[in-house]
């Protein structure tokens, strides 16, 4: 709330020189640059994509418009938890759509989507990571990040005795992280045996290592009492994990298309 008004910042277009104020102000500037860049990319993909594929860049443009609107609402309403979390989720969806459009240009790399076979399983993993990231955003914005102030236990127990909303959300966040790690491990082991995933072996190993490291960073977030630098690293690694998962799904989608 360093800039408590919108679209101005402290009543002016150019706010005073203060670290917190300029962090918020630059967030808005970057959003404007990103929206412009996305519009240019989406316009090219609308021309290149065929049929229903055109819905991908159109969805991206619609989401960025909604994201900007929600950004203003978040500020005006004083950071309400639910809207702030949705704001984060839409931003993550835009991130995924931009990555997709950056890889699939519609000519040399066709825009294809598949949810059959391993591609479908990998898409479910993508949704799982998206859900996990959304839980993390909710924890952060609802001030429930330290509802379980210890790790790997929660309030001194493997299964907490008290189940109010902050503790239940925090514990669920940890369980989903463990489930994501186990899923990544199983997929990696399957890639050693099944030819359909053999080409994804290196990517799946990278995904497994990222998820394991992310859990370690998550533990550091708790141990340091939500240290800002470590929490920022936790978010950056989330983007790396979800981006890597998207890439593996896209590669497997291409494999499924060639096999047909």
**For the terminal residues, how far apart are their CA atoms?**
53 Å
> In DSSP terms, counting alpha (H) and pi (I) runs of 4 or more, how many helices?
8
Number of strands: 0
Share of helix among residues? over 70%
Low-confidence stretches: none
Q: What structural class should be given to the helix and strand makeup?
A: mainly alpha
Report the biggest beta sheet as strand number plus sense, adding barrel if it closes: none
Q: How many structural domains can be distinguished in the coordinates?
A: 2
N-to-C order of helices and strands = HHHHHHHH
What integer value in Å does the Rg equal? Answer: 20 Å
Indicate the proportion of strand residues: under 5%
**Envelope shape:** flat
Task: Round the mean pLDDT to the nearest integer and report it.
Answer: 87
Key structural traits:
about 260 residues, mainly alpha, 8 helices
How are the secondary structure elements laid out?
Blueprint: H1 19-48, H2 55-76, H3 81-103, H4 117-141, H5 165-191, H6 195-198, H7 201-223, H8 228-259
Helix pairs in contact: 1-2, 2-3, 3-4, 3-8, 4-5, 4-8, 5-7, 7-8
């Amino acid at each position: 709330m360093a800039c408590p008004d919108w679209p101005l910042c402290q009543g002016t277009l150019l706010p005073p020189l203060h670290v917190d104020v300029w962090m918020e102000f630059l967030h808005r500037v970057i959003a404007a640059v990103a929206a412009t860049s996305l519009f240019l990319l989406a316009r090219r993909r609308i021309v290149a994509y065929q049929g229903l594929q055109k819905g991908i860049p159109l969805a991206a443009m619609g989401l960025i418009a909604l994201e900007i609107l929600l950004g203003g609402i978040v500020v005006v309403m004083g950071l309400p938890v639910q809207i702030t979390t949705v704001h984060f989720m839409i931003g993550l969806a835009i991130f995924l759509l931009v990555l997709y459009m950056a890889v699939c240009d519609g000519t040399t790399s066709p825009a294809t989507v598949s949810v059959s076979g391993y591609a479908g399983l990998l898409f479910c993993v993508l949704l799982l990571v998206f859900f996990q990231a959304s839980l993390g955003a909710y924890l952060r914005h609802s001030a429930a990040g330290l509802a379980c102030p210890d790790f790997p236990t929660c309030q001194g127990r493997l299964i907490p005795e008290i189940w109010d909303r902050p503790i239940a959300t925090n514990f669920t966040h940890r369980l989903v992280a463990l489930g994501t790690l186990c899923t990544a491990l199983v997929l990696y082991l399957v890639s050693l045996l099944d030819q359909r995933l053999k080409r994804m072996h290196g990517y799946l190993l990278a995904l497994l290592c990222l998820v394991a490291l992310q859990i370690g960073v998550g533990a550091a977030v708790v141990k340091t009492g939500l240290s800002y630098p470590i929490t920022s690293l936790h978010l950056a690694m989330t983007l790396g994990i979800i981006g890597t998962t998207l890439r593996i799904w896209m590669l497997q989608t291409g494999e499924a298309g060639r096999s047909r």
